[in-house]
């Protein structure tokens, strides 16, 4: 795996922000088995971090709290970072660009299989970082095609801005005036299989994500809107993983504005009135469940 280096020891670094599903509506299913989703997505200022530098040969190294859990995947060739590197290199070569050997370092700060898009965020950050390292100028639709090949969440993570995604995640509309929310993320460190959650979903044709005829403006209106939306995967995920209900009520006990599960779980988030309350809540939750994951953060606002 090479020596573990601080991400700062690299030519350039890329953040891989956690992807938060503020709402997720399952609206149907395609003939190929993919579920059709409507999602309201924002990204947290907290996430994984990747470092890149030119090297004599391709290298990959890991650090961070959840790094050890990923090393087995890396050996098994099941690593999205390396898949992203290989796909981008193929595209670069066929477009006549050089894509020389690189050392990629992943600082894995996000829990694995936790419904906040960690692997997808890492893949997207790999594409962004190597584009910079290799000075690539590829057409945007080529990059989107690569991203979608890596997974339905990767195009969203490539944007890493507030957005609405529909279809299987490929139809994306950015929300430039979306506000930032102070937030606590919590995870019981129990992996939940996305496939199992979808299998337990009783209805596949739920109502779509509808916004008021005037798009919400500002913090208060968006909170009211998000409250009226839902995560259709939360009930089946709770039936598989009892810890989700415990986690949700623990966060709820800290008086957030609202609590919900993200993605297919088991991560839940609480939105708080301000960063001070979120910080106190996270510290208190950490005292109650020292072995679980709690992280205070805020979401990235739209680029209006």
Automatic annotation (TrEMBL):
GO terms for biological process: isopentenyl diphosphate biosynthetic process, methylerythritol 4-phosphate pathway; terpenoid biosynthetic process. Pfam families: GHMP_kinases_C, GHMP_kinases_N. Pathway: Isoprenoid biosynthesis; isopentenyl diphosphate biosynthesis via DXP pathway; isopentenyl diphosphate from 1-deoxy-D-xylulose 5-phosphate: step 3/6. Residues 79-159 form the GHMP kinase N-terminal domain. This is 4-diphosphocytidyl-2-C-methyl-D-erythritol kinase. GO terms for molecular function: 4-(cytidine 5'-diphospho)-2-C-methyl-D-erythritol kinase activity; ATP binding. It comes from Rhizobium hainanense. Its EC number is 2.7.1.148. SUPFAM superfamilies: GHMP Kinase, C-terminal domain, Ribosomal protein S5 domain 2-like. Keywords: ATP-binding, Isoprene biosynthesis, Kinase, Nucleotide-binding, Transferase.
